[in-house]
Amino acid sequence: MSAFRVLKSEREARLAVLETLHGAVETPVFMPVGTQGAVKALLARDLKEMGAQIILGNAYHLYLRPGDGLVKEMGGIQRFEGWDGAVLTDSGGYQIFSLGVLRKIQEEGVTFQSHIDGSKHFLTPERVVEIQENLGSDICMCLDECVSYPSSHEYTGASVGLTTRWAARSKASKRNGSQLFGIVQGGMYGDLRLQSARDLLALDFDGYALGGFSVGEPKGVMWEMVDVVMGLLPAERPRYLMGLGFPADIVEGVRKGIDMFDCVIPTRHARNGKLFTSTGRINIKHARFARDETPLDETCRCYTCSHFSKAYLRHLFVTRELTSYYLNTLHNVSFYLGLMKRIREEIKQGRFEAFYNEFMSEWKGGEVHDGLGICNG
Amino acid sequence: MSAFRVLKSEREARLAVLETLHGAVETPVFMPVGTQGAVKALLARDLKEMGAQIILGNAYHLYLRPGDGLVKEMGGIQRFEGWDGAVLTDSGGYQIFSLGVLRKIQEEGVTFQSHIDGSKHFLTPERVVEIQENLGSDICMCLDECVSYPSSHEYTGASVGLTTRWAARSKASKRNGSQLFGIVQGGMYGDLRLQSARDLLALDFDGYALGGFSVGEPKGVMWEMVDVVMGLLPAERPRYLMGLGFPADIVEGVRKGIDMFDCVIPTRHARNGKLFTSTGRINIKHARFARDETPLDETCRCYTCSHFSKAYLRHLFVTRELTSYYLNTLHNVSFYLGLMKRIREEIKQGRFEAFYNEFMSEWKGGEVHDGLGICNG
User: Which domain holds residue B355?
Assistant: First the structure.
C-alpha cells in the first residue's frame, strides 16, 4: 500500500494522507521551518498545540552544527528536538546554491565553504542521503543543483542531467525505511522542467518536489513552470512546492494540485513585525497600533490573539523584547497552520473553488515574492 | 488588619503572606524582573505555570515606553501584559542613578536624559507615584537617590535627607489603594543607614526596602549594612532587598529576615548560557556538553529539563537560536522560584537553619556579585 492516499479531490486540489514513521500527515500541509534544530523562537510544545504535523529541518545546517553523527548518537532528530511528529529534511541543494562563489559543483559532488567558519566541505549525493538518515528524517530529499536566474538553456540543461544522475545515486544509496523525494529542476525552461520530471519519474520516488524557485524569477514564470510539470506528476504521489510562500501562493498552489509547502515567511516576517491576519498583513510597529486594544485577529484562537492587544504587541516589538519574537511567531505560524486546516476542510466539503475565489478577491497581504537568501529559518 | 502576616519564624527567617490587590503572595518570594512589559523571553502563561506570584516592572522604562498614560488607558499593567498576578514597580531611582552624567538631582526632583533617544525628562517624587498608580502597580516604590560607591559621608548624609524628604512627598501624594514602600539608603555608612531607616519608619510605609546596593561595593560591606538596619525594621512589615542576587545571596538574605527579592541574574544569565542547577552553575556552551544526553538538572521539573538534553541546549545556544533564550530562561526562573518554594517549606517545617548550612556548604555557583548597569531585565 502506498504511503500516500488521496481522500478527496476538487478539480486539481486534493485532500490526502501521507503516512510517515512518525504519524500520519494530512495534506495539503504547511511545514514550519526548523532550520537548525528549532522553529525559530518556538518550542516543540507550541507546534504540537497549534496542530503542526510535520516540520522541516535542514540537512546542510544540521550537518555543519551539531553534526549528523551527533544527532544520530542523541537518538535522532525527533528525540534531540523533543518533537514527536514527522520531519522532512531539505538536502541542502538550495543552501549550497545560495553560497554563490563559495561552492563548486562537479559530477562527483559539491565542494563548498561553510557560511559559519569558512571551513571546506565536500558532499556527494550519497553522503547527503546518509546525513538525512543519520538525522532520522521521515522524508529525505535528493541533493540537487539549483541554478540561478537567469541561466542559459545550455547550462540549465546540463544541470538537469546532473540533478538526475545525483537523484539516481541518491536512490541507490538509500538504506533505511524513510521516504525519498526527487526534486524537479529545469530553471525557467518548460522543456527542461518536463525532461527533469520524466527522468525522476523513471526512477520512481516516494514523492516529487518542485525546486529551483525563489531565485529571483518573476512569479508568473514560476507558476508557468509549475503548470508545465503538474500534468506529468502521478496522482498517487505527494507533490511538494519547495520554499513557498505567501498565503495567496499557498492557496494558488493547492488549486494547482500541490500537497506540501514550506517557507520561512511566517517565522521571518514575525521577527520583522509583519503579521498575518484574516484580512491581510499588517506591520505591528506602525504608530496607529500604539493604543489599539483589539487583538491582531479577532477570528484567531492562538495564545497571542486570545491574550494580548495590538498595543502590547507593538510595545514589545518597539522595545525589542525577546517575548515579541515569540508571540509574533506563535501567531504567524498559527495563521499558516489555520489556513491549511481551512483549506483541507474546504476540499473535504467540496467548496475549495468557492473559497479560492473569495480568498483571492479579499486577501490583501504580501504578494511580492522575494528571494530569501541562505534560507535560514 | 495588616496586608502582611507572619505565619512562622525560625530565628530571623520568616514565612509570611503579603496580601495585594492581585492576590496573596507567599514570602520569602523572588520577583522575576519584567523591566519593560515582559519578563525577557517568557510568556505570562509560563510564569503562571512555574508558580510566580508577583513580578517586577520598572517605572522608569515603562514611563519612557510605552508611557504610563498609555498603560492606564489599556486597563493597567496586568491587563496590558496578560498577567493576573501581583506587580511591584521599581521607582526608577536605581536606573536614573545608572545614567551617570545624564542625570541631575535637585530638591524638587531629577532631570535626566532618556537612554533611548537622549530626550530630556524631569521627574518628581509625586510624578513617580502617579506613574506607578497609572501603571496599576500593586506595590509602588518611593523615588530615592542611589549614591555611587564610594561616596563621602557628607554627600551620603545629605542624600539620605533628600531621600527622606522625597519619601514624605511620595507618601503625601499617594492616591489609590495600592501599597507604598520606602527605600532605606545610606550608602556604606552604618549611622546613615540607621538614620534613613528611622526617618522612614516615622513616615510609616507598607513595607521597607534596602536599596543602594549592587553599585560596586564589596559584598561583605553590603551584608554589614543589611545587618545594621534589620534590627530596626518592624516585624509586621515586609522587607525587600532590592536587586539581589545569586542563589546563595537569597538564602543568606532569608536567614537575615528578608522577605522579598528581585534580580536580573536568572534571566540575564540564561541569555548568556549560564544555567543554575541544584549542584551549582554551569555554562552550557562548554564543549563537554556537546554529547551530554542528560537534562540540565535531574531534580528539576521545568519544561526544559523534562524534555531536552544538555546537548540540545548547547546546540541551540551555540547556533544562537531564539528558542535557546527561551528554554534557558524558563529553566533559570523555574530554578529561582523552586528555590523560594523550598525555602518556604523549610521554614514551615522548622528546618531552615539546617537547610541553610547544607546549601552553603554544597552550593557552587556564581557568588561573585557584579554591578548590573542600567538594570534592564
Answer: 270-362
Arithmetic mean of pLDDT, B219-245? 97
Contact residues, A window 16-75, toward B, CB-based 8 Å cutoff:
36-45, 61, 65-66, 70, 73-75
pLDDT in tens, A84-125: 999 999 998 888 888 887 899 999 999 999 999 999 999 999
Confidence (pTM): 0.95
List chain A residues with CB under 8 Å of B80: 309, 311-312, 315
Residue A166 lies in a domain: yes
List the strands of the sheet with A4-10, edge to edge.
A4-10, A13-20, A23-27
From B229's Cα to the closest Cα of chain A, the distance in A is 37
Look at A65 and B38 and tell me if their CB atoms are within 8 Å. Answer: no
From the list A303, A318, A323, which residue is nearest B38 (CB)? A323
Residue A308's SS3 state is coil
In a domain, B371, yes or no: no
Final residue of a structural domain among B244, B263, B282 = B263
Q: Is A206 a catalytic residue?
A: no
Instruction: Search chain B and give the residue with CA nearest A303.
Output: B45
Residues B103 and B191 in one domain: yes
Three-state secondary-structure class, residue B296: coil
Given a cut of 60, whether residue A43 has pLDDT beyond it is: yes
pLDDT band of B67, cuts 50, 70, 90: very high
Q: Is residue B303 a part of any domain in this protein? A: yes
Query: What pLDDT does residue A370 have?
Result: 38
pLDDT single digits (tens) A348-371: 999 999 999 999 998 876 543 333
Mean pLDDT of B57-86: 97
Of B75, B311, B321, the CB nearest to A38: B321
Q: Is B308 part of any domain?
A: yes
For residue A70, the distance in angstroms to the closest alpha carbon of chain B comes to 7
Q: Which of residues 319-338 of A touch B (CB under 8 A)?
A: 319, 321-327
Residues B51 and B104 in one domain: yes
Tell me, yes or no, whether B238 and B97 share the same domain: yes
* pLDDT mean across residues, chain A: 94
If one counts every other C-beta atom within 10 angstroms of the C-beta of residue B353, the result is 14
CATH number at residue A57: 3.20.20.105
How many angstroms separate the CA atoms of A249 and B97, rounded? 53
* Nearest residue on chain A to B306, alpha-carbon basis: A82
Q: Quote the DSSP letter at residue A33.
A: B
What is the ipTM metric for this complex?
0.95
| Single-letter amino acid code for the residue at A310 | K
How do residues B294-332 score in pLDDT, each as one tens digit?
999 999 999 999 999 999 999 999 999 999 999 999 999
> Rounded to whole angstroms, how far apart are CA atoms B82 and B89?
16
Q: Return the pLDDT at B225.
A: 97
Sign of CA dihedral B324, B326, B330, B332: positive
What average pLDDT does chain B have? 94
- Sign of the CA dihedral running A356, A362, A364, A367: positive
**What is the total count of domains within chain A?**
2
Say if B302 is an interface residue toward chain A (CB within 8 Å).
Answer: no
User: Are A33 and A67 contained in the same domain?
Assistant: yes
Query: Looking at the structure, do residues A79 and A226 belong to the same domain, yes or no?
Result: yes
Alpha-carbon distance of A172 to B301, in angstroms, equals 46
Active site residue B90: yes
Residues A71 and A215 occupy one common structural domain: yes
Q: Which of A68, A90, A138, A259 is catalytic?
A: A90
